[in-house]
């Protein structure tokens, strides 16, 4: 059982409140993981800046969700797997591709498979990617700069995944259908 509070706008430290307000506008609610993250204004402030950069980069939202779901599975963060399952499905990933990622396999879609494989490999190898790892990604139609951009997505999801593992926020009712356990 976690001893970390899931903050609301009323209970969060003053410096965390603007970020919570921004996330509430983005999602229509404050994700419990953000409420837990709000305990540290430094962390949630760094997270939101990275979150904004990631979502304004060169990857489509479907590609970002492929990465975020892969990272959540690879880092074994149950909360993030359920959350990003819902978002991936909303962004048009097929149920079969989402289930493949949730099971630790590459999706059928060629580009999503390349994204998922490189993200998983980067985490498992702690960034020590080989030429073959990068070449397979490039052969799927991606660019060299996107290899590095993928690291920004991984950094954002690592923050979320680790916060989820440490604070263990409850899973929101709307994501219960996508509950997952390592």
UniProtKB/TrEMBL annotation:
<keyword id="KW-0575">Peroxidase</keyword>
<keyword id="KW-0560">Oxidoreductase</keyword>
<dbReference type="InterPro" id="IPR029032">
    <property type="entry name" value="AhpD-like"/>
</dbReference>
<protein>
    <submittedName>
        <fullName>AhpD family alkylhydroperoxidase</fullName>
    </submittedName>
</protein>
<feature type="domain" description="Carboxymuconolactone decarboxylase-like">
    <location>
        <begin position="56"/>
        <end position="118"/>
    </location>
</feature>
<dbReference type="InterPro" id="IPR003779">
    <property type="entry name" value="CMD-like"/>
</dbReference>
<dbReference type="GO" id="GO:0051920">
    <property type="term" value="F:peroxiredoxin activity"/>
</dbReference>
<dbReference type="Pfam" id="PF02627">
    <property type="entry name" value="CMD"/>
</dbReference>
